[in-house]
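Ticket 4471: requesting a sanity check on a complex prediction with adenosine-5'-triphosphate. Repro inputs:
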Amino acid sequence: MLAAQGVHVKAGDAVLLDKIYLSLAPGRVTAIIGPNGAGKSTLLACLAGLLSPARGDVLLDEAPLPDRAAKARARDIGYLPQDPPLHWNVSVRALVSLGRVPHGDAQSEAGQRAIAKALDETGMTGFADRLAGTLSGGERSRAMLARVLAGEPRWLLADEPFAALDIAYRQALMMQLRQIAARGIGVVVVVHDLALAAQLADEVVLLDRGRLAAAGPTKSVMTPQALEAVFGVAFAYARLDEDTVLVSRPRV
Ligand SMILES: Nc1ncnc2c1ncn2[C@@H]1O[C@H](COP(=O)(O)OP(=O)(O)OP(=O)(O)O)[C@@H](O)[C@H]1O
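Returned structure tokens:
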């Protein structure tokens, strides 16, 4: 279980997160949604243990995250930031191998197997010998995801992993995240695209100006009323083949 207990984050006088209580289960895909500036990335960074709240705690399996040794935390929680910087122009294989650093086994058989699997799962095997600096934006974001997957974390926390991907890779990544969750891994993703979040997630966390507006099963959180209250845009249910989908209704 990954939980936030009264997480409160401030920057100067600004309240970025206001007493957030959450409990996330492994084996589920949770989408964090909300308008720009709502605090989604801040919450994800807290859950990853990369940002310390001014008040409140993040608990992993009921123990405070800061009590865990840094290496153990890095093995448990794989974090993919929005637009991760490329510090060294190394090969894609070397970049993905960095995912094994918390295990210290990049050269071992188990490490090599995890690296090969991560390259394969992200469609990056054919790029393994390319310099990462020569990749396109979408290829680079897949390589960064492969790096996190190579670490075989118990929790995968990703900030807008869909942003640079074309429609085919978006769908592939959606399926992949669902498969990762089906293996028992907790997947938490910040998602801007509400239709994508509705399709992808088992659970949704809806943030509004640093506050928790709602959290729970996707269908109960993503209602036209709740989304309208937070985004200030009209939403409605529409029929699409056999499915009911949520659509926004522009007022022009
Ligand atoms: N160091 C800081 N000082 C002041 N305000 C900050 C600081 N860091 C973040 N903020 C503000 O906190 C708010 C939440 O930021 P955050 O990046 O978590 O939002 P977000 O929901 O991920 O936004 P987006 O959808 O635009 O990516 C924003 O209004 C941001 O400007």
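Notes from triage: The chain has a mean pLDDT of 92. Leaving this open until the requester confirms.
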